[in-house]
């Protein structure tokens, strides 16, 4: 699969991803279809982000004879940002079924647009070698930066964190890159505009509300 890469920021370039994202953007897309689309794009992001994971070999036996197999060496942890990050989690678990899931609760205050941390399931001691941080939408970048800071404070080095997101604003992506240079980012697409109230345009709308069908009537 082709991906447009700038330093460690990788923007997917694939017709199936583009088509799925276009469906997600539409207001007529149902919550069920939205969840399925987020899952499908997340799966592609995870596969692409896993290309350079270190492998280790082992000796095995097929019904015909012996073989040398390989398995992923680092222990992967998943850290979805609540609540929208939950929409990406099942896709990642289909590839890493034994990965622990550490939920991070962060919301954006509506007036100041600043991130507010309210929950962390990170254990006291680091128990994984690498973290996939799952945040479907990067708008101002504040939530992603707050989540990254939580994972770094936990003890995971920046080089062992991969940020996966479905859509980002250019401004938000620039902020993340500026505050955390060297971070590996995988994103399906980047929109150029960020509105005055911190919404990606044309964007997807509120990802959490669209995932879980909690849109107010005026937003439908």
TrEMBL record:
Keywords attached to this entry: Allosteric enzyme, Glycosyltransferase, GTP-binding, Nucleotide-binding, Transferase
Phosphoribosyltransferase domain: residues covered: 11-214
Species of origin: Obba rivulosa
Pathway recorded for this protein: Pyrimidine metabolism; UMP biosynthesis via salvage pathway; UMP from uracil: step 1/1
Protein name: uracil phosphoribosyltransferase
Enzyme class at the top of the EC tree: transferase
Family matches, as Gene3D superfamilies: 3.40.50.2020
Family of this protein: Belongs to the UPRTase family.
Single GO MF annotation: GTP binding
EC numbers on record: 2.4.2.9
Keyword Transferase assigned: yes
Cofactor(s) the protein needs: Mg(2+)
InterPro entries, per the entry: PRTase-like, PRTase_dom, UPRTase/APRTase
